[in-house]
């Protein structure tokens, strides 16, 4: 800041102005230019007094040659001293009528030179008016260590003709004005000051209300002015008295050439407030909003209350607004700008559908990163950009990913090669092409890199992904491919580096699922026991958190100090480790989900044990309870991620409910089936196999409760439609394909009833299903198809040899799968087709075997049918008493089955 804001022009260098009043006028021009050169202190003998033209801020005002001449700066200590706040003394009023906020050069009639002596006010008046500086601990340079007069006290101004004004006249003139001034200030403060402003004003006045006691200086009451005082009765105050004290930053800033030397401020309290840097404040507010919203996301995802969702969106919108304002700031250094673009785009991708805006922010950040070589932020921004691109153009995303993979491979940035290749694998899974050649080739490239770099956990994870991809296919050699992947992963079972809790559990789950799909239930029971032991071992493991769903795959650290590729800003994808390894962050099955999946597999294995009839429903109910537990811990996460996790848990829970309903239908417990359907009806099923599976359970319920017409309508639903290749329309899931085949077989069985018989439609369906079922990789589908062909009546009927062939295939398949329900149906159909009205021991053995297997299955309908055929065989053998008792049991079971259908 220039001289004008540092101290009044023409400041004298002695205590009293009379010390230098007789100097020669020819020295004025030279001394006016040298008076305030920056020096360490004042030297009295080297400076001469100038002629005084007026008083300003308690010091004589001297003539200047040019109003617009540039003034030199003064030392900071002097500037701070002379900028102290002016005060008033009501006991010694002064004349304010001729005060001016401008320098003395503003007086038009002021003579430029004069030799007449200047008469000053008596020095005792100055001593009476003296008030010490506000900050008494300042070290002020002064001549001969003598005390300077206080700048806080306004002194009377000398007239334009350099005549002395009597003190009595000065006091009389200002008494009335001071009273009016105090009245005006009181009114203004009462009307305009808020309570907060009043407290601030009191805090500012506190240092002035308790001044230190100077030598021979009486205590003076001071008053702070906040509003300009209007001119009344020809008197007006000095406008500089209303100006606030300049800050050090303002004193150091030079004044522009067009700005007047002194400008009246609007409010002293407003100007005293220091400048607040808003950029850190905006960033803190944004992160606080995101943290608060993410902490409540898990609860909101379960309840989905409108008010909670609205509050969540409000918090996210506030945070995004703060980030947007911060991004538009011109105070961003390059790395902060790149980080802001990355953070802003990541929130947009996670929380909103503003894909184009996110791409714009990421593109801006990538340009900054390329300019300043921020490789870590560049890779992370490209990673997010591929996610946004995949949402609107998957083919372009795959091509761009290949380019980024080539670049990372060329620069030997192996962590980012893994990251981009895993992202590509995720895109293939979302596209339903996980088992395609390009997807498998991508996984094999990762396995090769992991083998070369000796990263065993990474190799196991890649083998798991490839095994899961083959498990979802309908190829003939799927079992060999899956078993090969499991064997490749298990060969590292004795290496500690290959063992992670999530990887061990996922590997056991994959092996168990493979055995279940093979219908190898004995092996499945053994593998289930191993899985349960492993889960009990890992239940209380600290490294496997119940809250987090992250899987950290170790990667050998690549040292590149010149351009680091990993940092705290990449922790969402790649995370720095403490030792020789960094980590690739993946989202995997959590501890709660692992236990739930183990419960579901346990129930499926228990289905094939005749000694555990109904136990599977209890196990699946426990899985539902575990998944719907609201007290289970969950860390902070965005609402879409929380919704995805909640939907996954709800999907697994619904699947368990469907399994409970299907087993209840096998046991003729239709009331329980209806309860399961009611529970499923309250939850909206997303489009997919769960939706079709729920529809299938509904058809089973209608058919089992003797509502064949409604069941036939359900089996003809478009969701069960298939093309000639056996694939369901608009879906390629093998689960839905199997459900469509089962729906068509149920239609054939219903059309055997006289009320719904249709030989033409039956023949058409059989021709359609024959190529799909005879060579189907699922053994249960083949068994069901052979049972239907062995039991139905066609026109013309099938030859007896074909019927025997179908019965043989179904019976052998039921024995291989240990399915008691299939076995009871096959034996009873064989008794009906081959030993009807046949007398002999073989016919009786067949009837007894069918009855025994029906009792093991627990199905009341087939139990009543088996008892009736056994009674008929006994009667033909001459065992009438036993036949009568058996017939009564069959009738009782049939009546009970009929009563169980009355659920509506």
TrEMBL record:
GO biological process entries: cell division; chromosome segregation; mitotic sister chromatid cohesion
Compositionally biased intervals (Basic and acidic residues): 878-904
Compositional bias (Low complexity): 12-38, 59-73, 170-224
Major localization listed first in the record, in broad terms: nucleus
Region ranges (Disordered): 1-111, 137-157, 170-269, 876-904
This protein's GO CC annotations: nucleus
UniProt-annotated location(s): Nucleus
Sorted UniProt keywords: Cell cycle, Cell division, Chromosome partition, Mitosis, Nucleus
Polar residues bias: start-end ranges: 48-58, 80-111
InterPro entries, per the entry: MAU2
Keyword DNA-binding: no
Domain of life: Eukaryota
Family that this chain belongs to: Belongs to the SCC4/mau-2 family.
Name of the protein: Cohesin loading factor-domain-containing protein
Organism: Neurospora hispaniola
């Amino acid at each position: 800041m220039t001289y004008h804001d540092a101290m009044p022009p023409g400041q004298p260098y002695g205590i009293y102005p009379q010390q230098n009043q007789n100097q020669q006028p020819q020295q004025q021009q030279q001394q006016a230019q040298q008076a305030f050169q920056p020096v360490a202190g004042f030297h009295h003998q080297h400076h001469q007094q100038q002629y005084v033209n007026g008083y300003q801020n308690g010091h004589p005002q001297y003539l200047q040659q040019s109003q617009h001449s540039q003034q030199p700066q003064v030392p900071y200590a002097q500037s701070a001293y002379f900028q102290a706040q002016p005060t008033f003394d009501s006991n010694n009023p002064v004349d304010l009528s001729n005060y001016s906020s401008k320098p003395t050069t503003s007086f038009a009639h002021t003579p430029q030179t004069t030799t007449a002596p200047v008469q000053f006010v008596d020095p005792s008046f100055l001593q009476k008016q003296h008030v010490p500086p506000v900050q008494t601990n300042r070290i002020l340079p002064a001549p001969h260590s003598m005390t300077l007069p206080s700048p806080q006290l306004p002194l009377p101004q000398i007239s334009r003709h350099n005549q002395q004004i009597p003190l009595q006249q000065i006091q009389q003139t200002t008494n009335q004005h001071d009273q009016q001034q105090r009245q005006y200030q009181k009114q203004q403060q009462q009307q305009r000051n808020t309570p907060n402003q009043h407290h601030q004003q009191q805090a500012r006045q506190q240092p002035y209300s308790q001044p230190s006691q100077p030598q021979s200086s009486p205590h003076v009451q001071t008053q702070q002015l906040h509003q300009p005082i209007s001119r009344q009765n020809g008197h007006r105050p000095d406008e500089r008295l209303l100006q606030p004290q300049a800050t050090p930053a303002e004193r150091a800033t030079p004044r522009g050439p067009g700005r007047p030397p002194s400008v009246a401020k609007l409010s002293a309290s407003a100007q005293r407030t220091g400048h607040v840097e808003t950029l850190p404040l905006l960033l803190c507010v944004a992160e606080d909003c995101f943290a608060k919203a993410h902490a409540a996301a898990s609860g909101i995802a379960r309840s989905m209350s409108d008010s909670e969702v609205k509050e969540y969106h409000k918090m996210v919108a506030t945070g995004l607004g703060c980030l947007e304002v911060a991004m538009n700031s011109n105070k961003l250094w390059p790395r902060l700008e790149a980080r802001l673009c990355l953070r802003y785009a990541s929130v947009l991708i996670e929380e909103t559908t503003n894909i184009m805006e996110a791409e714009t922010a990421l593109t801006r950040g990538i340009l900054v990163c390329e300019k300043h070589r921020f490789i870590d932020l560049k890779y992370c921004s490209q990673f997010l950009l591929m996610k946004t691109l995949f949402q609107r153009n998957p083919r372009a995303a795959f091509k761009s990913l290949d380019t980024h993979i080539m670049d990372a491979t060329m620069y030997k940035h192996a962590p980012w090669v893994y990251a981009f290749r895993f992202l590509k694998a995720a895109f293939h899974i979302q596209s339903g092409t996980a088992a395609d050649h390009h997807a498998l080739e991508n996984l094999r490239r990762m396995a090769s890199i992991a083998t070369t770099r000796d990263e065993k956990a990474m190799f196991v994870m890649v083998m798991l992904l490839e095994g899961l991809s083959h498990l979802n296919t309908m190829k003939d050699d799927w079992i060999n491919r899956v078993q090969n992947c499991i064997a490749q992963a298990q060969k590292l079972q004795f290496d500690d580096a290959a063992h992670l809790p999530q990887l061990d559990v996922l590997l056991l789950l994959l092996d168990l699922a493979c055995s279940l799909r093979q219908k190898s239930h004995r092996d499945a029971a053994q593998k289930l026991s191993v899985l349960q032991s492993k889960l009990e071992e890992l239940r209380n493991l600290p490294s496997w958190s119940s809250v987090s769903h992250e899987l950290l795959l170790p990667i050998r650290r690549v040292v590149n100090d010149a351009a680091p590729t990993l940092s705290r800003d990449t922790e969402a994808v790649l995370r720095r480790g403490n030792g020789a390894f960094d980590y690739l962050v993946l989202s995997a099955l959590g501890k709660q989900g692992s236990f739930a999946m183990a419960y579901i597999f346990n129930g499926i294995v228990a289905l094939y044990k005749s000694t555990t009839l109904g136990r599977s429903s209890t196990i699946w109910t426990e899985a539902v309870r575990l998944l719907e537990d609201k007290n289970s811990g969950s860390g902070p996460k965005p609402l879409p991620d929380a919704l995805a996790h909640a939907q996954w848990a709800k999907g697994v829970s619904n699947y368990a409910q469907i399994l409970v309903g299907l087993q209840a239908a096998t046991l003729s417990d239709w009331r329980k089936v209806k309860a399961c359907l009611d529970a499923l009806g309250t939850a909206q099923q997303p489009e997919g196999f769960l939706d079709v599976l729920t529809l299938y359970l509904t058809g089973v319920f209608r058919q089992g409760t003797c509502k064949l017409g409604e069941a036939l309508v359900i089996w003809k639903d478009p969701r069960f439609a298939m093309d000639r290749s056996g694939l369901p329309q608009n879906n390629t899931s093998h689960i839905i394909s199997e459900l469509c085949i089962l729906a068509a077989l149920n239609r054939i069985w219903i059309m055997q009833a006289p009320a719904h018989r249709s030989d033409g439609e039956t023949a058409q369906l059989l021709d359609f299903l024959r190529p799909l079922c005879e060579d189907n990789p699922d053994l249960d589908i083949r068994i069901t198809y052979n049972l239907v062909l062995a039991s139905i009546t066609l026109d013309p009927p099938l030859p007896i040899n074909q019927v025997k062939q179908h019965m043989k295939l179904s019976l052998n398949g039921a024995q291989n799968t240990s399915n008691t329900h299939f076995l009871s149906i096959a034996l009873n159909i064989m008794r009906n087709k081959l030993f009807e009205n046949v007398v002999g021991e073989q016919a009786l053995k067949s009837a007894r075997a069918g009855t025994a297997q029906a009792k093991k299955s627990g199905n009341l309908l087939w139990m009543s049918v088996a008892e009736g055929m056994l009674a008929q065989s006994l009667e033909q053998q001459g065992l009438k008493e036993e036949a009568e008792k058996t017939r009564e049991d069959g009738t009782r079971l049939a009546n009970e089955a009929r009563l169980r259908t009355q659920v509506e």
